[in-house]
Amino acid sequence: MRAVDPSWALPGIIPPAFWHGFTWLGDSGLLIPASLLILLALALAPRTRGTAWLWCLVFGAGSLAILLSKLAFMGWGIGSRSFNFTGFSGHTAISASVWPVVLWLLTARWRRPVRIGAVVFGWLLAACIGFSRLAVDAHSVSEVVTGYVLGVTVSAVFLALARRQARPDLRWPLVVAGLLLPLLIFPPGLPAPTQNLLEAIAVRLAGIERPYNRYDLHRDSRPKSRVSNTATS
């Protein structure tokens, strides 16, 4: 069963290949290393180590929410048929969490209007990445919208609390160089194996043969249990 109406892809206007390439900007293979870069960049300077721990706490809470929502559905089918919801869109949520903070770091030495503009641009970029998840038929509207709200909340809470801390003093070439490092492992177009890993964990924890999928949600079916299978053999 399809996640969304394929008309989201705007056929004839924007080539599908564009959306498949653009959606990589929200891939965990790029943004998880970027989140670690943020942590490292803040932790290296004594004056911003408190901000580093703050990022670790806030981003960690958001990531845990994404993880639990996905495992809950994959392992136990906890979702919403009426809203076509199977968990937060990870690409959208992480994009809205990380990109505004990365751009804030890049402009930390600049004036306040520039920093605000950079953060807003990061949120707009995350919204476009969320739209790309609809265009490639990877998520439903509810999953993208809730993922975006979660991500914006993470970055907004962090940035609001970070205002009380010392302002980072980073050179933007170093930040850009750090962002390019993940390209050596996961080049554009090559997704990280996050989904397969989560599915394996969910199957293991729930003791089922395969993870729940969107078809199960709408057909009111469920994967066979390994225990029950063994008992009847």
Could you walk me through the main structural features you see in this protein, from its secondary elements to its overall organization?
The protein contains 10 helices and no strands. The protein is an all-alpha fold and 233 residues long. The chain has one domain. Residues 229-233 have low confidence and may be disordered.
Q: Supply the number of helical segments.
A: 10
Number of domains: 1
Largest beta-sheet details: none
Structural class: mainly alpha
End-to-end CA span: 31 Å
Please give the radius of gyration in angstroms.
19 Å
Rounded average pLDDT = 86
Helix content: 55-70%
Strand content: under 5%
Order of helices and strands: HHHHHHHHHH
- Uncertain segments: 229-233
Give the overall form.
globular
How many DSSP E strands? 0
